[in-house]
Every structure is written in structure tokens, then in C-alpha cells.
Amino acid sequence: MRYHFEKPGLYESHYGQIYICDHPIYTKCTLYVIGDKGLAVIQQRFDEERKATWWGEIDPWLTDAIYLHRSFKEYFDGRAKPCKDGLYPTVTVRQIMWALKMKPIPKHRWETVFDRRDI
Length: 119
Fold this sequence. Notes:
Layout: E1 17-20, E2 28-34, E3 37-47, E4 52-56, H1 60-67, H2 72-79, E5 81-82, E6 90-92, H3 93-99
Parallel strand pairs: 3-6
Antiparallel strand pairs: 1-2, 2-3, 3-4, 3-5
């Protein structure tokens, strides 16, 4: 039995788009838009050379799996809002995967978390 969501051998990314913005925490995210409402999803990355982390768009092999999940629309409707000052409500990839009851991606020891619902 798999305990973590594993990267598939073949994948296509049809849903979600890379969105560039001026958010205080990140500059790029994966944006899901339905109608006039949107939800930004971010994932933490690690640069081994500089020993630094940053937040950015999620892995492309996760975009469709999240969007096509049976509970995504309900989650989206509860969290998404129209764009305000060029920003959309934001969640981490772990927050959305846990909320959808998906197996999470493996957690690395360098990862940090947000202690609030809104980012």
C-alpha cells in the first residue's frame, strides 16, 4: 500500500496555470480559476547549493490530480474568491491534499508550515 502520492510515469497538465504576482511570500503559484473566482496553490522548494527554501508553483504532475479530485469543487467553492489587488486566496499543496483526503507527497525535513488557514 502506498503511503504517499507518487509521481506517475506519464502525466499531462491540463488544469491550473502558472500565475506570476507580487505576493509577499511567493512570486509564482499554480492558479485554479473557475468563473471569476480563483485559488492559488503553492509548494515549497529547496536550493541545496544556497541552503535556502522558497515557495512557488506546484509540481505539474499534481495539477490535474488535484483539480479532478471528486471533492475539489466543494473545497474550491469554500476557499476561492475573486482577485483582489492582483492576489487570490492561497493554500499550500499539503493543505489542499489533506483537505481532499489525498495521500500527501513525502515531507522533507527542511519544509516549513503555516500555522494559519489564510496565507
